[in-house]
Design brief:
Layout lengths: L4 H16 L10 E6 L1 E5 L2 E16 L5 E6 L6 E2 L4 E5 L2 H36 L5 H34 L1 E3 L4 E3 L9 E2 L7 E16 H9 L11 E6 L10 E6 L9 E9 L10 E8 L3 E7 L4 E3 L2 E7 L5 E5 L1 E6 L2 E6 L6 E5 L11 E4 L9
Parallel strand pairs: 1-22
Antiparallel strand pairs: 1-21, 2-15, 3-10, 3-14, 4-6, 4-9, 5-8, 6-7, 8-10, 10-13, 11-12, 11-14, 12-13, 15-20, 16-17, 17-18, 17-21, 19-20
InterPro entries: MdtA-like_b-barrel, MdtA-like_BSH, MdtA-like_C, MdtA-like_HH, RND_pump_MFP
GO molecular function: transmembrane transporter activity
Family: Belongs to the membrane fusion protein (MFP) (TC 8.A.1) family.
Length: about 375
């Protein structure tokens, strides 16, 4: 029992001291540094995963059947428009042309003879030397011969087209793939592509933008301007290098993809040195050509918790308030605020972790002497 006396004495002394001492000391108002949310002009930049496609990709397919007699190109090399690429055995098609031409000559001869007979009949019928029915028959023979000539000419033209198709030529200047067939194999319309020709010095860049991004662009009047004037398009390779040529948007899909909630966009980029290849994956970096107005705050002011992204702002009565925001692009040390904040709002950038919403603070504009230990 004696060991408990000091404890009671300590409690008693503490109670007497608390009762007889001065009033509780008021805690100082926390000091924070703030900065105004301000409007600036900037060119928004967006990056998108993209794939490259050739606008002038030609699948070379045999339009007639026959033995492949010759391949005239080097695989992987550039060919010029009009260069011969494949030869299919033309012998049967040349024979068809000769036969069709003979039929044309025969039909032409028949028409000429019938026309002469009609010319003589025109003189005879007026004098009554031939009957009207005989004249009508002669005239009918002329019309029939003319029809036969037209049919023969059409057959000749068709045979000539088949003969021309036996020689496959490059439709444009471009780079050849490997050949899918060897000399001596039989090819035809059902054989599939003989090879692929990638032509032109422009490359298509295909990427997707979110439905929300499209809505914001549409709301700002994007459909009403020339697509060429929307943005500069740069290509960034996987190693971080930026392609030397700059392209432009030339197509935006007319509907939203229901499965991905995205809108397809196509840009065109010059490819003068044939560096870009179809199927390649790059990052498409878009920089709007026209400057946009945006509200920005320092990155240091932006906080994130389970409730979302926010800043702590100081009201005119020095009360701290939480403001939930939607952020956009980061610009150096600033962040674009798309929703939630108004121009001129004072946001805390230093001392933010020592205060909470609803607390009164002493705010100073950033740039004045700051004490990092506040």
């Amino acid at each position: 029992m004696r060991q408990s006396i000091p404890i009671y004495l300590a409690i008693l002394v503490g109670s007497l001291t608390g009762c007889g001492g001065p009033e509780d000391v008021e805690m100082p108002v926390p000091q924070v540094f703030v900065q105004e949310a301000k409007m600036i002009e900037y060119r928004p930049v967006g990056s998108f995963n993209a794939r490259l496609e050739s606008r002038n990709e030609v699948q070379l397919t045999a339009l007639v059947s026959g033995e492949l007699q010759a391949i005239h190109f080097e695989e992987g090399k550039v060919v010029n428009a009009g260069d011969p690429l494949f030869d299919i055995d033309p012998s049967s098609y040349a024979a068809n042309v000769a036969a069709a031409d003979a039929d044309r000559i025969r039909a032409k001869s028949t028409l000429d003879n019938n026309q002469k007979t009609l010319n003589r009949a025109l003189a005879l019928i007026d004098d009554g030397y031939i009957s009207q029915s005989e004249f009508d028959q002669i005239e009918s023979d002329v019309n029939s011969a003319a029809a036969q000539l037209r049919s023969a000419e059409a057959n000749l033209q068709r045979a000539q087209v088949d003969l021309d198709h036996a020689s496959i030529k490059a439709a444009t200047t471009g780079r050849m793939s490997r050949s899918n067939f060897n000399v001596g194999e039989v090819v035809g319309p059902e054989s599939g592509p003989l090879a692929t020709l990638i032509g032109g010095n422009m490359m298509d860049v295909i990427f997707q933008i979110s439905e929300a991004a499209w809505y914001r662009a549409a709301r700002n009047g994007l459909p009403d301007v020339s697509l060429y004037d929307v943005a500069d398009v740069e290509l960034v390779f996987n190693d971080g290098d930026v392609f030397s040529e700059v392209g432009y948007i030339d197509y935006i899909a007319n509907r939203v993809n229901e499965s991905t909630a995205t809108v397809e966009v196509r840009a065109t980029v010059p490819n003068p040195n044939d560096i870009l290849r179809p199927g390649q994956f790059v990052t498409a970096r878009l920089t709007l050509k026209e400057p946009q107005s945006a509200l920005v705050v320092p990155q240091a002011a932006v906080q994130v918790d389970q409730r979302g992204t926010y800043v702590l702002a100081v009201r005119e009565d020095n009360m701290v308030t939480r403001v939930n925001i939607v952020t956009g692009q980061r610009l150096a040390e600033n962040v674009v605020i798309e929703e939630g904040l108004e121009e001129g709002a004072l946001v805390i950038i230093n001392g933010i972790h020592r205060v909470r919403a609803g607390q009164t603070v002493s705010a100073k504009i950033a740039g004045q002497e700051q004490n990092d230990d506040i």
